[in-house]
Design brief:
47 strands; 7-stranded antiparallel sheet; Beta-gal/glucu_dom_sf; signal; GH; 10 helices; alpha+beta
Length: about 775
């Protein structure tokens, strides 16, 4: 495709230009040497010393000329308030954070420190007459840039958004010196930090939910020549319903300028239109081929200013797709291109044992996304971190739906007004940077109450700022003191191990933002041997596979059709530092699970969502009796006796007490409106519930646990219905030896006996014995 060829061309040009602009080491600095990583990935030893991450860093706004400034820079650390040092006694490999092994520094950085970077460059002669932009993919957190001793623009604050300076007036026509200073307080400040925390940079016990920080420059630094009037951004919103791409071209020095945008495929233009910079206009894309995880087709896009000959020209790409939430058979569901497809993904933290926040190579950055595809997932939740733009490029190319979290502020703290203003400003900058990625379908504002405030207002702000995507106001509204703003497009619960169900609503789709966390430690591939945390350790790899596939099957068979669940995020794709609950080890050397089995389970889940019919309906607010369908026992019914659940033969000649004990009122599910609760005929207010696997009749205490345990979600069975526990999809109401149990096929208890399991968990709902 054309944009791929463009990327290859600009990469080659970048290497040539970089040699012309090469760094001159400071005479006071020592030679650069690598540091040993606690764990090595397959790419650790493939990182070039002088030219790491040489790929063009901004695939949705490309130009042919640029110069990559990644490589060896002079480096120093001073106290926070110190002036620029006169000597730089160390050397660092940019763009790896100084806490990482790949940087060559590998040292803890605190809020008392200031980082200093220095290198020289020359501007290629071929750039004469053009403006020179100095671009940073990201630098965490407060970054000041000086060129030849003079400050470039304003101080940038933010750890996850790209920023640029026009440094043309600061250049000297020969060898130029750039000095970058960065202050990063991590959790001791009030800014967005995600899961970064100040801690030892070598393996250590504890800290299983948060990880080693990445301070300073952690994404590509590069130079680029532009015209004085030039394009800075393409905001593209596909409208496949009328075969158009809506485009807003942003620029500098372009007020009122005309612009032409073309869309092509395989080198052939399929549509073009002219408009004005800063104003949205539509470009026709006739008979648009839709982008989806199964067919991630991308169109090439070009834009040029038309006001004068030789006006600025950029390349880009887009995917034609739509995302919305609507009623599907009476259930609110997210729909991709107008159709419901279950979104099955993993939690992706984006940490590396050698590069911390920065993947060692572009192949490594792609690898985790490709592994999602190999395992049959169609979605990834990027968890409270924002990746470089090339990560989004690979998600777009490979076909993975993306939920993008806004990095949280520190948990357990209420942010002050300055922190809130900064956080919202950075969030809008991140949205602007990634708003044209077709893979990105949902913004996740906050997580489990970390630094939470104004949830409803923020969700409305994000929806108004980017109305073409879904918004999740809080992931994990049921967890950790989180508060639900009550708005947005989805309602999002966390359930470990789960999967559980998120209660359905009239206006929002129900999703599971986190579940799973199954653990297995692989000897020789542990960051801190013996210290790996998980939500449920597995005794063997076969047990891990069985348990994981069982969770996915439970979603397919119950949580999706019966509970109304529309998406799920498994924790997690890799181990991370002291967490051993990944599908891969932290070093990406071992895939723990059987790829073919997991892929088949995910594919079956997605396929089932495409043919999903309406949920099974039971007669609400009516009395029923529930009959066994197991051959040879079909005259038995569910009844309670001394508070416990049993089955017993009931007939016309049975006594009135038995008939009443075998009669239940069908109520709306206490924990999920799509499911049901069964109230005793004899004991109003007492429901059929499971506790410690035994099923019993019991009064409620209004707790969320009781409501979930007393809620049953029906799915169609052979000759009847099967009743799964609302909180435990895949576990069913079963009779065995006349007793009622919550049972799981392949479980370890006596009541999980596989003999006759399906028949024993299938029931007929019939007229009541005691009306």
């Amino acid at each position: 495709m054309r944009h791929l060829l463009t990327t290859l061309v600009v990469t080659a040009l970048a290497v040539t230009t970089l040699l012309a602009a090469g760094a001159s080491p400071s005479r006071a600095a020592t030679a650069w040497t690598p540091r040993p990583a606690a764990m090595t990935t397959p790419w650790t030893d493939r990182v070039p010393v002088d030219h790491p991450l040489p790929e063009y860093p901004r695939p949705q706004l490309t130009r042919p000329d640029w110069a990559n400034l990644n490589g060896i820079w002079d480096f120093a650390v001073t106290s926070r308030d110190a002036a620029q040092p006169t000597t730089f006694g160390e050397r660092i490999r940019v763009p790896f954070a100084p806490e990482s092994a790949l940087s060559g520094i590998q040292r803890k950085i605190t809020g008392n420190d200031r980082l200093w970077y220095r290198r020289t460059f020359t501007v290629p002669a071929g750039w004469s007459g053009r403006r020179v932009q100095l671009n940073f993919g990201a630098s965490d957190w407060e970054t000041t840039v000086r060129v030849n001793g003079r400050q470039a623009g304003v101080v940038h604050r933010g750890g996850y958004d790209a920023f640029s300076y026009d440094i043309t007036p600061l250049l000297n026509g020969g060898t130029n010196t750039v000095v970058v200073s960065v202050f990063d307080p991590t959790e001791t400040g009030g800014q967005a930090i995600g899961k970064q925390r100040i801690q030892d940079v070598t393996p250590h016990a504890g800290h299983s939910i948060v990880y080693t920080a990445s301070s300073g420059i952690w994404q590509t630094v590069w130079l680029e020549p532009t015209a004085a009037a030039h394009i800075t951004r393409l905001d593209m919103v596909p409208h496949p319903e009328d075969d158009t791409l809506h485009v807003t071209v942003r620029g500098t020095g372009t007020d009122g300028a005309g612009v032409e945008v073309g869309v092509s495929s395989g080198g052939t233009t399929v549509g073009s239109a002219v408009g004005t910079v800063g104003t949205e206009f539509a470009v026709p894309v006739p008979n648009a081929r839709l982008w989806s995880p199964e067919d991630p087709f991308l169109y090439d896009v070009s834009a040029r200013l038309t006001g004068s000959p030789g006006g600025d020209r950029v390349g880009s790409y887009t995917g034609m797709r739509s995302i919305a939430v609507k009623d599907v058979d009476g259930v609110r569901r997210p729909v991709l291109n107008g159709r419901f497809v279950f979104q099955t993904g993993t939690l992706d933290q984006g940490f590396w044992p050698d590069g911390n926040y920065t993947a060692p190579t572009d192949d490594a950055l792609k690898y985790d996304l490709q592994k999602h595809k190999d395992l049959g997932f169609n979605m990834v939740r990027k968890h409270i971190k924002v990746e470089p733009q090339r990560w989004f490029y690979w998600a777009d190319r490979l076909g993975l739906l993306v939920w993008q979290d806004m990095p949280s502020m520190d948990s357990g703290k209420s942010p002050d007004s300055a922190a809130r203003t900064q956080w919202e400003s950075e969030y809008r900058a991140i949205i602007d940077q990634h708003r044209s990625s077709p893979a990105l379908i949902q913004w996740v504002d906050q997580n489990e109450g970390w630094g939470q405030y104004d949830q409803a207002r923020i969700a409305d702000m994000v929806k108004a700022y980017d109305p073409a995507r879904l918004v999740d106001n809080m992931s994990g509204v049921n967890c950790c003191g989180a508060r639900d703003g009550g708005n947005g497009d989805v309602v999002d619960n966390h359930n470990y191990v789960g999967p559980g169900n998120t209660p359905t609503e009239q206006m929002r789709a129900s999703v599971l933002g986190e579940y799973g966390g199954l653990g297995y430690r692989v000897p020789g591939h542990e960051w801190y041997p013996g210290g790996g945390f998980s939500y449920e350790d597995q005794p063997s790899l076969s047990a891990l596979n069985d348990r994981l596939v069982g969770l996915l099957d439970g979603i397919r068979q119950n949580a999706m059709p019966a509970g109304g669940l529309s998406a799920s995020v498994y924790t997690q794709i890799t181990d991370v530092e002291n967490e051993a609950n990944g599908l891969m080890t932290y070093d990406r050397q071992v895939v723990k699970v059987d790829e073919s089995r997991v892929r088949a389970a995910n594919q079956a889940l997605v396929a089932a969502s495409r043919t999903l019919g309406p949920p099974v309906r039971l007669p609400l607010e009516q009395y029923v009796s529930i009959r066994v369908t197991t051959p040879g026992y079909t005259d038995r019914y569910i009844r309670h006796h001394d508070g416990l659940g049993y089955t017993e033969v009931v007939g016309a000649g049975s006594g009135d007490l038995l008939k009443r004990d075998a009669t239940w009122k069908v109520r709306p599910g206490l924990a999920n409106r799509l499911c049901y609760s069964f109230e005793s005929r004899n004991y109003p207010g007492e429901y059929l519930r499971h506790r410690e696997f035994r099923v019993r009749r019991e009064a409620g205490d209004d707790s969320a646990l009781y409501k979930a345990d007393a809620t049953w979600c029906p799915v169609q069975g052979n000759g009847g219905i099967r009743l799964s526990a609302a909180g435990f999809p895949g576990q069913y109401l079963r009779h065995i030896n006349a007793e009622l149990w919550l049972a799981q096929a392949g479980g370890t208890h006596s009541w999980d006996n596989p003999a006759g399991f399906t028949e024993d968990t299938t029931w007929a709902v019939e007229a009541p014995w005691a009306p």
